[in-house]
Amino acid sequence: MKRFEYFIILLLSLVILFLSFYPIYYRYKTTPPDRTYVGTTFYTADYAGYVSTIEQGIKGRWTYVDKFTTEKLSETFLYYPYLLIGHIAGFLGIGSIWAYHLSRFLLGLIYLVSIYWLIAVIFSDRNRHSGESSEARRIQNQDSGQARMTGSMISSIKRIIAFFLVLFSSSFPSKLSSIVAETQVVNRFVIQPHFLLGNIFLILGIILFLKYLEKPEKKYVILSGLMVFLVTVFRPSHVILYLATIGIYVIVSTLASFWGGSASWRRRLQNHLRTDSGQARMTMRQYFIFFLTSLVFSLPGFFYLWYLKSNFNELPYFLYDGEGKNLFNLWDLVLLQGPMLLLAVSLFFRHSGKSGILLSFVAANVVLLFVLPKIYPLNPLRFLQTPLFAILAILATEAIFKLAKNLSLITLMFLITVTFSLPTLWLDFDHEVHLYVDAYYIWPPKEYLPALKFLESSSKPQDAVLTYKSLSNLVPMISGNTIYWGHTNETLNYNQKQIMVEKFYKGLMSDQEAQEFLKSNNIKYILVGREEKALGNFHYEFLKKDFANLELELYNSEL
Fold first, then answer.
1. In a 10 Å sphere around its CB, with 0-12 CB exposed, 13-18 middle and 19+ buried, how is residue 523 labelled?
2. What burial class does residue 36 get, using C-beta atoms within 10 Å of its C-beta: 0-12 exposed, 13-18 middle, 19+ buried?
């Protein structure tokens, strides 16, 4: 059975990776004859930012410089995973675009392995405390099929179903589906590398805690602390969620150990701990040691973020993450997660031992989504960009086996759940393939590249460039220059700057006004492509044309 299980897991993984990477291939194959494809998938402006950061790493930098705004901002470690990818790519001689997609592919594989590892821990063949044996006997006795199934076979079927639901479960299309691309079926496992890293560490953290519950060894505590230390700076939301998950589990378990209510409730809750009252106190001590160690290891990262926010609050990173707006409600969350959430909720009062930590994860996620933003200005969407869908799918699998009376009903519930998911899976796939059907930042004119390469060779990286729309995202990732305006979340004073850019290209400034505008913002080069020309005609006497072809003109302000 194990070989068959591994074969199915491998096959499912290849299918989801094919569906996820196919949009890239499709866009490459459908590139118009007069255009070139620059590898963009979703969140195109973010893609340009991450590729440009990898390029900074290739060129030897270990600190991140924002290339999408001309203000002098502090250099930080906020995007160090991309800088590290850049250093590795530089050592291997790989370009930044290839490095970006290869890292997505490799981290996607690791992500899939980590999720399967979690599933294997939850539904292990020798799960003494989750009632596997009794459940297997129940299914054996009640199944009307010809073959009797062993406990090991039941566990294997659970793991396969859970992995399938993790990969392909979806729900009703909702506004959250378009806001958070990371929840879409075809993006989950090939999203931005730092999201993948954060999700991998989050899954591994849960596995470490489960391993620690089975056998409280120091190595699990140390590994958890190291993991938290590495993740805190670039994915603080994931660390907060991880700490909240462990904290809720510890609190609930402590209350369960010393519950003073009726005997039936006391027995039920203490059975969750799998220990007697005296040993429970030692178990609680071990829980708190694990939690406090992870918390202590997270403090350096949180202190660094606090230092940056206190001294460099103008960093776009904080401006975006500090929005703290409730962009959705509980109903939106139900629509987004669909039947997986409803099935998981049914386990809150009938779950077995190991799923308690997964239910704590769900509870922590809901609290952080709807309560924390009211207390502290943190963007709640960050807590949807976590593997909540995977945890719900694992819990849904357990719910199916608990609610169904025999193998036939289990199969029927699984098929109903899958059938429910297929339409949204197709919508996600079709949307991702046909997204941005004629965008210059997906397929810029071929003549753009020689001009950007000329800019790369004839200017310094710190020389600022003025562009509009599509070109603004191409400049940092191809020529390496800083741009005045372009990225919604990385450009300071985005709306005000857009007004000034349009005024400049429309020729609504006098020579003196234009010269003062460029000088005050340290802008040395002006690019004029299709979109810039569409804004109107301008003519400023002091500009010098350095490069021109059929599509693009490059001017030097000579200031």
1. buried
2. middle
Give φ, ψ of 81 to 5 degrees.
Answer: -60, -40
How far is residue 85's CA from residue 286's CA, in Å, rounded to a whole number?
Answer: 37
User: Quick check: 380 and 373 in contact, CB under 8 A?
Assistant: yes
- Pull the structure tokens for residue 132: 């596997």
Q: What is the largest CA-CA distance in the chain?
A: 90
Count of H-run helices and E-run strands, the chain = 24, 5
Give the pLDDT score at 275.
Answer: 44
Dist CA 354 CA 351 (whole Å): 8
Using one digit for the tens of pLDDT, what is the confidence trace for 257-299?
665 444 454 555 455 444 444 455 557 778 888 999 999 999 9
Tokens standing for residue 260? 């003073």
DSSP 380: G
Using alpha carbons, select from 377, 404, 353, 110 the residue that is nearest to residue 237. Answer: 377
Q: Is the sign of the CA dihedral 158, 150, 144, 351 positive or negative?
A: negative
Sign of the dihedral through C-alpha 371, 375, 380, 384? negative
C-alpha 384/C-alpha 369 separation (Å) is 8
Identity of the amino acid at 495: N
Place of tokens 């993790």: 166
Instruction: Give the up-direction half-sphere exposure of residue 428: CA atoms within 13 A in the CB hemisphere.
Output: 30
Task: Report the 10 Å Cβ neighbour count for 535.
Answer: 17
Nearest Cα to 336, choosing from 534, 223, 145, 174? 174
Element (H, E) at 3: helix 2-29
- 109 CB contacts (<8 Å, ≥6 apart)? 13, 17
Flag whether the pTM goes above 0.85.
Answer: yes
Low-confidence ranges of the chain (pLDDT < 50): 128-133, 144-148, 260-263, 265, 269, 272-278
Return the closest-CA partner of residue 403 out of 458, 339, 449.
Answer: 339
Kindly report the backbone phi and psi dihedral angles of residue 554, in degrees, each rounded to the nearest multiple of 5, phi listed first: -120, 120
The 10s digit of each residue's pLDDT in 456-511 is: 888 888 889 999 888 888 899 888 899 999 888 888 888 999 999 999 999 999 99
Query: H-helix or E-strand containing 554?
Result: strand 553-556
CA 392 to chain centre: 17
